[in-house]
Fold this protein.
Amino acid sequence: MLVKLFALILFTIVLMLANLCLGDIMVQPIEALQTIFTTPAAPPGQLHDVIFGIRLPRLLTAAVVGLALATSGYLLQALSRNDLADPYLTGVSSGAALGVAFAMLFKFDFQSIPIFAFAGGITASFFVAFLAKGQAHYGLSVAKLLLAGIALSSVASAVITMAMTVFGTQLMAQGLNLWLLGGISGRSWPELIPTSLYVAVGLFTALATAKQLSLLSLGEEAASSLGLNVGRSQVIILSAAVLLASSAVALSGMVGFVGLVAPHISRRLFGRAVRLQLVTSGLTGACLVLFSDLLARTLNASQELPLGTLMALIGGPFFIYLLSHSLERVNQ
Amino acid sequence: MTTVTTTLRAEQLALSYGNQKSKIGDVIAEVNLSLIAGQVLVIQGPNGSGKSTLMKGLARQLRPAAGTVSLGEKDIWQMNIGEFARQVAYVPQSVELPWEMTVHELVSLGRNPHQKWWSTALSKSEGALVASAMSRCGLDGMGTRKVNELSEGEKQRATIAMALAQEPHFILLDEPTANLDFRYQLELIAIIKELKAQNIGVAAILHDLNLCARVADQVLLVGKSKAHANAASSVVALGSVKEVLQPAQLRAVFNVDLTILPDPDGDCDIYIPRSLIN
């Protein structure tokens, strides 16, 4: 298992290096690393600008977004005990997007965008959790969770469109639409650094709740009979998941399916042990987004593809496959 | 094990699933019982008579609609959840056993109420405790097995071992023999007797009258009155096996005729359900 974990870390590093070197301007890996780890000459050259101004912040953004979305997806799946949960499908991302749109519309400082995203995401998550809870005392209904997520997403996107049409300028609407498609081009240090701090808080919380997740996996009744304050643990874990997902939304817009696909791949590779999954899901997500962004930048040289579109192209069919697969299992 | 004899006691307990506003009727009402250390209480009653609900009420899973449940001098809802879990363990009807968890990991989770919230590390004495809990439930040498690969009987024993690792004074078992074949059922009876010998108070829901007769110090028979089918269940009888498991009483509660024979090789009577009464 340690060897596999090491291989995953190595793979992440290789992907990062590839993102650093490949593109319109090809850079030798050695040269790229030299540029990063040595102090620049008095007037920084073009290479320095490409690496520090564009490639490095972008690849770090990709890694942070992947890490955050995948860990968030894993937490939501563990919490709802349902492998089909994901921040995008459960409407958490849409709620966060609504928060971001609100912040943009009223021209709040861009540093405050993650806070608005979190507010939107947490509202959406409580709303969906409340709907999916239904009559049963324990657990969430799978169908209700997904349907509530879809309904919430539609309403959120309608509200965004309406608000933009009524209150916003055309330029603003175009900018927001582009952002909603999901992408990380043009992201740089000022957005990346504060958001990474929120992601770090979310990841730390997630890792700290490993035991609570193990207890909850026995079912809420058994968990509470073992002395766990179930409600409080669920709120903490859900908040961590929402913080991670909404940070990612604030950074990259609506990039779907990472939170669904990455934990699945990671489960296939590493099994279901909670502590390990908390680490490997995130790393797998980072790899997934790094790889997708590399494709988005290099597949079509004349104009790059939106990352969200590419992820949907990969993740959508995967979701359909999972859906039919899990239905088969239920029917058997 | 401490020498203090605590009592788990229900007084005028009524339970319902509705909240205060949507007042649906109580599932079970007016229950008085007390369970002391080293005693086995078996709850008997037809399906839908609120046995599991009563268990949830005793296990601090469901707040009383009326009345109280107390442990020693304290109302259980005045205790925090950890304090309660250090004294009372509850094994629900279905514990979801996650993939990839080993038997040892599962049983170790029983130490949770004694640990700091972040810690999963077992001290030396805790390690020994977990090992002894496994051994008492016949799980020696199975620590590294994955729980989802266990047989039904082994799963049941693993969850009871987890409850034992809590070092409780009381263990509440909701239908522990469901899904078990008769060999495992007998094993379970042996485990309950073992718990009793350890001075642990046990409350269990057992459907099988013959198992019940073998192990119970007290039997609590719950049921609904025929005249009011929608009314709450209540206690029909509480007492020793001989006092409660009488043909007339069982007939009235279950609507079944039964024959009771003396056991030629033992000291428990044998109960044979014969025919339905309408």
About this structure: Residues 182-197 of chain B form the longest helix (16 residues). Chain B touches chain A through 35 residues (CB under 8 Å). Chain B is about 30% helix and 25% strand. Chain B has two domains: 1-83+169-184+199-246, 88-167.
